[in-house]
Amino acid sequence: MADRVHRFVSRVSDLELQDVFNPYCDRCLSCDLPDGPLIRKKNLEASLRAAVELNVRTLWIARDLGYRGGRRTGLALTDEAHLQSFSASLGGVEVERSTFGPIVKERTASVIWQMVHRVSEPIFFWNAFPFHPHEAGKPMTNRCHTAKERRVTGWVLQELLDILSPQKIFAIGGDAKRCLGSLGIDATAFRHPSYGGQNQFIREVEEAYKLNSAKMNPQGAADKQLQLI
């Protein structure tokens, strides 16, 4: 299985698409270390091997990588502020930062990890589209990947599912659920935590995992703590 994981990561890192940043082969000159793509490639391979060894059976799948999160870490739904949390969630797997300068936080990742800390089982994170699509000439923007881009990379998710054989798949947001549906993959949807969906996302995760509801003060302090730039 280790050889299969290595081959999978190598094939993923070889993919090139226009107006798409592949964090496992592309280097951002404004923020990446010289070996940034290699670090992210190692992060992905190490985390996938750890998931196999831990027999992870649950996937949370979002739509695509964002420029503040997975573009910089190579890890879905994980920003630099949560690399250590990611490591701990998969048994202490070694993952490294691939950029220089101040740590960049992503609000979606913060809400996701707020809930992952409360779940008592390991989870593997992925995206319907495995890279960071951006507007032409504007690398530090987010856009939804196209249907064509999803078709070209559809084998990536299918092979990942074959490697992990998950029992439960949760889609983070309606867009992700529709993308998965177009690939023939059934998933239970959580409301995406962005654009006012944070509280509903929290409630749905609590219900799915039978967690006690977190207490919120009347002023919504928990929300304020997550207003990250």
Spell out the key features of this protein:
229 residues; alpha/beta; four-stranded parallel β-sheet; two-stranded antiparallel sheet; disordered C terminus
Number of domains: 1
Main-sheet strand order equals 3-2-5-6
Q: Please bin the fraction of helical residues.
A: 40-55%
CATH superfamily: Uracil-DNA glycosylase-like domain
Total helical elements: 9
Order of helices and strands: HEHEHHHEEHEHEHH
Distance between the termini: 40 Å
Radius of gyration: 17 Å
Word description of this protein:
This protein is of the alpha/beta class. It has a single domain, classed as Uracil-DNA Glycosylase, subunit E, CATH 3.40.470.10. The chain contains nine helices and six strands, in the order αβαβαααββαβαβαα. Strands 3-2-5-6 form a four-stranded parallel beta sheet. α7 (174-182) links the parallel β5 (168-172) and β6. α1 packs antiparallel against α2 (36-53) and α1 packs antiparallel against α6. The longest helix has 18 residues, at 36-53. The protein is globular, with a radius of gyration of 17 Å. The model is unreliable at 216-229 (pLDDT under 50).
